[in-house]
Structures are given as structure tokens and as C-alpha cells.
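re the bet — no i am not wrong, look at it urself. input seq straight from the record:
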Amino acid sequence: MRNPTSSSSLSFVPAKTRAVTDASEAAAPLSEFGREMQAGLARSPRSISPKFFYDVAGSQLFDRICELPEYYPTRTELRILGECAGEIAQQVGPNAEIVEFGAGSLTKVRLLLDALETPKRYLPIDISGEHLEAAAARLKADYPELVVQPIAADYTMPMVLPAPLAGAGRRVGFFPGSTIGNFEPDEALAFLQLAARMLRGGGLLIGVDLVKDPARLHAAYNDAQGVTGEFNLNLLRRANSELNADFDLDGFSHAAFYNAPRRRIEMHLVSRRAQSVCLNGERFGFEEGETIHTEYSHKFTVEGLRALAARAGFRPGAVWTDPERLFSVHWLAA
């Protein structure tokens, strides 16, 4: 989980129970979120990309998730980054430009910046522009010598980064939080191939959640306080606010479970009864128990991630893990 920006193409197909309302509700031009939500509701099974979790409210809810006792990935990755910072800095080298994919609240990068020798510039990329700008302003205040240049964009799409600054060292990607797990396998390969091209001559530091006891995984995505459920349901709240949809939030519930054969957590919004929802002048019927798939979180073995990275064009290097081998951080040379 985190700034999953998987942007699979969604085919627009007829829903089982959909009817266009009268002319007074003629479809208005939609945002990217609106187009993908409309297409996701029309397909079977229904789904929406997890990149749309991260409006301002969703980003704040995710920050709360990271502090939950059940949610081990954040604190474990922070521990690895803190304890291994010196070794990581040796791999990165001096005067580096750091490109963070799905930057969020810019928390973990501080450990990296503190360890690096005179980092030149930091380029955080995130789809939630408002949240990113606020976080970047706080970081700049704490690191006045660092050039901080936030980029509001979908980092899974090809983009042209600013030219390197004069005297800059290697350009190094930072992709923490096991966000790579939010991609389908072919999408994970495509992203890593894109990153390898963008970072040629530098490298990628990537955090990856590891395969473990299913009970521990279940607890991490079904916390006792219900914050993950709020985070999931916020997607519908956002649709109501931004797309003039009429989702009844009490009519849906959060569900997350571990699919062991596919080594992934699956997260869904489950319709609690037969109901219909209107979005942009179109009505979508839900049967009781029907779901909207909202997120995958694939888990990896160390060897599996290294093999995937090699296929993408990286040269796998050092790997750091915690004593329980819950999580791993990899250096991939580009």
C-alpha cells in the first residue's frame, strides 16, 4: 500500500444493470478520476486503480495507517533505512539527485538525505499535488541547502525529468513502501523498465514487502481501529464530492484478505445490499455482496524481486532486511 499508481487501461463495457437517466442529467466532461471510475464500475468484475486513494483526505488517512501497531511495513522499512543509511549512502555517492516515485508525505526520504554526502536536488513525484506541495514546503524549510522541486504527476506514465543540475552526481530513484506490490506483475515489470531508462547511469533504491505468515498480513490490512477501512471507503466519499456521485457509504464495507497462491493482499469495497449508484448521469446496479476491487499488495521473495529487476534492465546489488525478514530494501544499479 502506498501511492499505488497502477494505470491499467480500463475497457468500457456495458454494465449488467445500467440505465442512462433523462436528458437533464446529460453526461458532463469528466476528470481522469471520473473517467476511470465510470469505466471501472462498468466492467466486470468492477475495479478502480488505487492511485485514486490519494486525495488530501486519503493521504492523511494513509499517514495514520503508517502509525498503527498492526501496520509493520512503515516502521520496519524506517528501521532498515536508519540502521543501514551509511551503506546505502556509499551506493548512492556524493552530490546525488534523488527522484522519489509516489512521494507522499516525504517522511522516509529524510533518513536518506541525512545520510547522503551533499545531495544536490530532490525531485518528489506524486499524483496528489496539493498534499505534495505542502510536504515539499516543510522539507525545504528543514533542508535549506537542498533544491526541492516537486512534480505533480502520475509516475507510471512516461515523463521528461528536468536536466541534471551543474555538478550533480548520480540520479537515483527512491521507491519505498513496497508500492511496487500494488502493480500487477506485468505492470511492475513495465514500471521498472521505465525507471531503468529514466535513471540510466544511476540506480534505484526500492523497498519491498516480503512473503510472511498470512495472519500477520491479515492484521496489517484489517486494523482494530478501522483506519484502513476508512481509507478504503474514502474513495467513495471522494467520488461523491468530486464526481457528484451518490454512493451510500453505509451501504459498503471494507474487505481485505490474503490470496496465498498469488502472494498478494486483495482489498475490496463490498456492497452490503442490493442498491444502485448514479455517477455522471449513469446508474449502476449492485447486488448484495458484489465488490469493487480497489487494491492489490503483492508480496515478494528477495530472489523474486532481484530476478524481476534484472529482467527490467537493472543490475541487482546490495539487499538489506530486518532480523525477522519482514521487509527488504534493494539497491538496483541502472
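see?? The mean pLDDT is 91. told u. also The radius of gyration is 20 Å. so pay up
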